[in-house]
Amino acid sequence: MGYKTKIVVTVMLMIIIGIIAYFIFFREIEKESKIINCGEVPADFDMQNPNYLEENPEVKKSFECSSVNFRDCKPSKITYLGTVVNMFYVKGIEGDKCIVNYESRGKGIECKYTLGQVKQMYEVAEENGQAEMTSFAVIFGLGFEIMKHSPGGTSEQEMINRDTGEKEKILCRFY
């Protein structure tokens, strides 16, 4: 093979590798940017009404969507309307942690739950016949945490592992 042929072959291989790398990278970006929108919960949501979800199937579908995506740690969001718009995001998996964010009144909190903790929360809700309310329970808890908001500060929640009886920490940071 001549010198010019080697250069042409090398350049062609670099172009082909570049094209393949571009498509692989582009697809990864596309996957990461797909956030499942689970919808909105109206301002008149009444959690004290035991029949509310049965009477409002669209709201129930939003809760189911958010809870299933939280269980599987798939990027998703659900919006709560009211006097203040609140959002709950499942950002995705980082190592063995499921990253979630909750935003309210211009304040935010990001927490890292282990996949085991997420699974346990979902199982407890499922055992109580309310699997669709798993994400709402987390949002409710984060709503109380955000009241302690200190930009750049941190917070630790605790959860008892049902199998071991040990306390496990859930690390959160305010933004």
Strand order in the sheet with the most strands: 1-2-3-4-5-7-6
Let me know the average pLDDT: 88
How many H/I helical runs?
A: 5
When the domains are counted, the total is 2
Question: Biggest sheet, open or closed, and with what strands and sense?
Answer: 7 strands, mixed
Question: What form results from the Cα inertia axes?
Answer: elongated
Radius of gyration: 22 Å
Low-confidence stretches: 27-31
Provide the helix percentage: 40-55%
> SSE order in H/E notation?
HEHHEEEEHHEE
- Determine the structural class based on helices, strands and strand pairing: alpha+beta
C-alpha termini separation: 61 Å
Total DSSP E strands: 7
Notable traits:
175 residues; 44% helix; 5 helices; alpha+beta; elongated; 2 domains
Structure description:
The protein is elongated and about 80 Å long. The protein is built from 5 helices and 7 strands, in the order αβααββββααββ. With 175 residues, it is of the alpha+beta class. A hairpin with a 5-residue loop joins strand 2 (76-80) and strand 3 (86-94). It has 2 domains: 1-33; 35-174, no CATH class. 44% of the residues lie in helices and 29% in strands. The protein has a 7-stranded mixed beta sheet with strand order 1-2-3-4-5-7-6.
